Amino acid sequence: MAEVEHSAVALFAADSVNLSTAKAQEHRDQVNRLRTGLEKKIAEHPDYALVKMLHAGSVAKGTALKSVNDLDVAVYVKQADAPLNDAQLVPWLADRLFEAAPPNMTRDQFVAEAHCVTVSY
């Protein structure tokens, strides 16, 4: 049985497994545009219901696979402003995120799913 050298494994990982640095940065830039919009909204309206947004998950940690098809983001909300009913929370969050989105985004890009908001580009 032939030995597999580290260089062969590294090449395979770079070609077939690991998300490229450029693609990871493209994903981070998408998240940062949303974060910038939210930060602007909060600065203009300190009483806004959302507090901050953090990029989370494998892309943020630098462990994403080449097959990544989503970006994880944590959004902090003011409890007093959020709906008490769980069924209303995600649609409410979709509306708040759209309000803070860059002007080139449309409401239909923010879809309330069962447990999260999906933002499509």
What is this structure, in a nutshell?
The protein is α+β, with helices and mostly antiparallel strands. 45% of the residues lie in helices and 16% in strands.
Comma- or semicolon-separated keywords:
single chain; 121 residues; alpha+beta; two-stranded antiparallel ribbon; 4 helices; 4 strands; 45% helix
Structure in words:
The model has no long low-confidence stretch (mean pLDDT 91). The strands form two sheets. The protein has a two-stranded antiparallel sheet with strand order 1-2. The radius of gyration is 18 Å and the shape is elongated. The protein has 121 residues and is of the alpha+beta class. The termini are far apart. Helix content is 45%, strand content 16%.
How are the SSEs placed, and which strands pair?
Layout: H1 6-17, H2 21-44, E1 50-56, H3 57-61, E2 72-77, H4 86-99, E3 110-112, E4 117-119
Antiparallel strand pairs: 1-2, 3-4
Largest sheet: 2 strands, antiparallel
Order of helices and strands: HHEHEHEE
* Helix/strand/pairing category: alpha+beta
Low-confidence stretches: none
Strand adjacency order, main sheet: 1-2
User: How many β-strands, per DSSP?
Assistant: 4
Whole-number radius of gyration?
18 Å
Query: What's the total helix number?
Result: 4
The assembly state of the depicted protein chains is single chain
What is the CA-CA span between the terminal residues? Answer: 47 Å
Residue fraction in strands: 15-25%
| Average of the residue pLDDT scores | 91
Which outline best applies?
Answer: elongated
Task: Report helical residue fraction.
Answer: 40-55%
